[in-house]
Amino acid sequence: MQNIHPTAIISSKAKLGKNITVDAYAIIKDNVEIGDDCSIGPHAVLYDGARIGNRVKIYQAASIAHVPQDLGFRNEESLFIIDDDTTIHEYVTCHRGTKSTGFSRIGKNCLLMAYTHVAHDTIIGDNCILANGVQVAGHVIVEDYAIIGGMTPVHQFCKVGRHSMTGGGFRITQDLPPFILAAQEPLKFAGLNIIGLRRRGFANSDIEALKKFYNLIYDHSLNVSQALQKAEAELSSNQFVKQAIDFIRASKRGLIGK
Predict the structure, then answer these.
(1) What φ, ψ does residue 58 adopt, rounded to 5°?
(2) Which residue, 133, 125, 135, is CA-closest to 164?
(3) 174 falls within a domain
(4) Could you list the active site residues?
(5) In what order do the strands lie in the sheet with 27-28?
(6) Per residue in 219-253, pLDDT tens?
């Protein structure tokens, strides 16, 4: 059963799943696909390239799959993908990919609060929360279970690690490692995200191993290479420490607070 408001404008070429609600004055363009049990709020616009999963909620005046704010974009075909069970609040703006990657993506079970922006060629993992006014630039990766506080911009090409939590009103201009808390200006390591990790079932032994790891990484008597070498010798048997080591070794922008 479809519940389409008579003022909504929906292309006959768009592909709609079952049990869709489309509210007043929403616009759905030609090259759009929407899964089952979704709701599209009033005045929301789904542009060409929008790919919406199942049970997705998009609230009023959100803009999904608009063209990238990139001077090199030449109207090539690309996508913005939103996976199952994600909620997109009012006035969120999501821009599709460029020829660089061809898509942007938000994972499953994410919450994007009002006025959030997700730019071109950016990937948001599963179970992430972006609070009000978070501004994510192009080519950013936000890993699973990351939480970013309100009004925080994320610089282009940065990577935000899994299970991390960043306070509101700060700036992410370098890579932010997994499993940590980040705060202060300029942004610094503020300890392990212990409450978040415990809520997600991390064992005490894993939390202790990660504490020891980040004590090494943010020991200012050691540079990153020295800290990683020591951590690999002492702690790399722990799977989560191994993930953190891999993240840091792959970093191209350097680490916050280091």
Answers:
(1) -120, 120
(2) 125
(3) no
(4) 120-121, 138
(5) 9-10, 27-28, 45-46, 63-66, 93-95, 117-118, 135-136, 153-154
(6) 999 999 999 999 999 999 999 999 999 999 999 99
- CATH number for the domain harbouring residue 244: 1.20.1180.10
Same domain for 123 and 15, yes or no, is yes
Listed residues 124, 139, 154: the one ending a domain: 139
Structure confidence by residue, pLDDT tens digits, 95-134: 999 999 999 999 999 999 999 999 999 999 999 999 999 9
Complete DSSP assignment for 44-85: -EE-TTEEE-SS-EE-TT-EEEEPPS-TT------EEEE-TT
Beta strand 180-183 pairing with 188-192: antiparallel
Residue 20 lies in a domain: yes
The whole domain housing 64 covers: 3-139
Q: Is the pLDDT of residue 1 over 80?
A: no
Taking each helix axis from N to C end, the angle separating 224-234 and 204-217, rounded to the nearest 10 degrees, works out to 150
CA angle 118, 38, 31 (to 5 degrees): 65
